[in-house]
Amino acid sequence: MRVVRFEINNQIMFGAAEADSDQIVALKGDPLFDQVQPAGPIYSFEEVHLLSPVLPRSKVLGAADSYGPKGSGGAIPFFIKPNTSVIGPDDPILFPGYAEVLRGEVELGVVMKTMAKNLTPEEAKHAIMGYTIINDVTAAGPNVAPLTVAAKGFDTACVIGPWITVDPELDVDNLELSSSVDGETTQQGSTSGMRRTVFELVAEASSITTLLPGDVIATGSLAGAPELAAGKQMECAIAGLGSFRNPVLSR
């Protein structure tokens, strides 16, 4: 099942769609916090504007330096992207005026469904609602320190979409990821290249900070994150989870 958040006729709604369906069943309330109930209307993907499928109540927690040989290196560095940085598919990424370089990073996103602290990897598996795609947009330059709000937390720095895939059997440690800019492939790889399994990474994050329902964990980027410029368009894709595009504009 896919959980979507969308806008139609100036109304923002949640919906559900089967994996192979082009129809969205509108839902009452937010499926993260309310009992899932159909609201009545059924829409096609073509007639709605998809939004970020989740607007985190608390935070997006990003993992840095997460790819490499299994078990290698020390602790995973984590950073926070505020919920004000979140946008959805097709929304413009705005190039910050203080930055000299802007890069996009395709990443697997993990959406939490329960409050969680000090999880084991097995417990982490059962605390997850589903999976999505993230473009962890990152600013750089002489006046931008790495992993700070200026680098990671500016408005439009976190694209989430196109939906949340809810599938407990999904092989999250063997998902193919790719990104492209104006149709040219820039990143390509697999979550199998991460230093931790996905559940290990979620457990490690929960040892640092309490995870809340609706929190999203960006599990880290492949090498080769492309530079972005105004007028370019970046696409992020993960096999089995979908894809989205965003134009880049000057602020």
Automatic annotation (TrEMBL):
Q: Indicate the segments forming the Rv2993c-like N-terminal domain, all copies.
A: 1-53
The residues covered by the Fumarylacetoacetase-like C-terminal domain are: 78-248
Instruction: Give the superkingdom in one word.
Output: Bacteria
Query: Which InterPro entries does UniProt cross-reference here?
Result: FAH, Fumarylacetoacetase-like_C, Fumarylacetoacetase_C_sf, Rv2993c-like_N
Per the record's keyword annotation, is Ribonucleoprotein included, yes or no? no
Task: State the Gene Ontology terms under molecular function.
Answer: catalytic activity; metal ion binding
- Keywords in UniProt for this one? Metal-binding
Under Pfam families, the record lists: FAA_hydrolase (PF01557), Rv2993c-like_N (PF10370)
GO biological process terms, alphabetically, are: small molecule metabolic process
User: Per the similarity annotation, which family is this?
Assistant: Belongs to the FAH family.
Protein name (Swiss-Prot/TrEMBL): 2-hydroxyhepta-2,4-diene-1,7-dioate isomerase
> Which source organism does the UniProt entry give?
Boudabousia liubingyangii
